Amino acid sequence: MMKKLLLVCLSATVLLGACVKKKTDVTGETTIRFVNAIPNSLAQDIYINGNLAIRDLSFPNQTTYGTYTSGLNEVTAINTGTSVANLDYDYGTTIGEYSTVFFFQDFSGNLVSGGIKDDMTAPATGKARVRFVNLNNQSQTSFTADVVGGANLLQSLVFATASPYFDVDPGSKFLIKTLLAKNQVTLDFNPQAGSIYTIWVSANTTADVEAYTFLQK
User: Fold this and answer.
1) What is the pLDDT of residues 103-151, one digit of tens each?
2) Which among 10, 17, 21, 204 counts the fewest CB atoms within 10 Å?
3) DSSP codes joined into one string, 155-180
4) Are residues 137 and 159 in contact, defined by beta-carbon separation less than 8 angstroms?
5) The whole model's pTM is what?
6) Using an 8 Å Cβ cutoff, are 158 and 134 in contact?
7) Which residues contact 46 (CB under 8 A, 6 or more apart)?
8) Which domains does the chain possess?
């Protein structure tokens, strides 16, 4: 059964505010990538306005950026090989905008989705740039993020929110942990100067934390 859900929008700090934009006669190109952030989920096929756009998107993978028509578009996620729609909603974008759409679960285990605008501005010379997204529905506590052997980047990032971007040294490692000391992970993906990364955090149980990374630019 098709389930109509409200789209939630990841802003620079909180998962609030409307992402849905009114229909307009002025359209152009917008650039979107999709991320399956639903642990233990079936692979998903993504339809845009009823047309198959992405096939077989499994956890914890993401697509490359794809070019779509800006404005208001219907996005539907369906279990690959079936006709079961998990999400069906309208998503609005702006001409020339880059964004990432995450499919994840809320605290009740319901499948939801959120879009976040991707800032493609180059980092400072000689630096890499990172941001963090909290999609860990197994814990209602926030998480912190530190550069290993360096600065604290985040003191508290709550569920369904995204951090600002941070410029860091190439090769930095990151320690991500919740208020429970045992729930932590060290992330070592060797960020490169001039590149931008998104780090998103999830978990399979209340006792663990998992962190995943993709290259934004």
Assistant:
1) 999 999 888 888 899 999 999 999 999 999 999 998 888 999 999 999 9
2) 17
3) EEE-TTEE---EEE-TT--EEEEESS
4) yes
5) 0.87
6) yes
7) 34, 52, 53, 54, 57, 75, 76, 77, 78
8) 8-117 (2.60.40), 128-215 (2.60.40.2890)
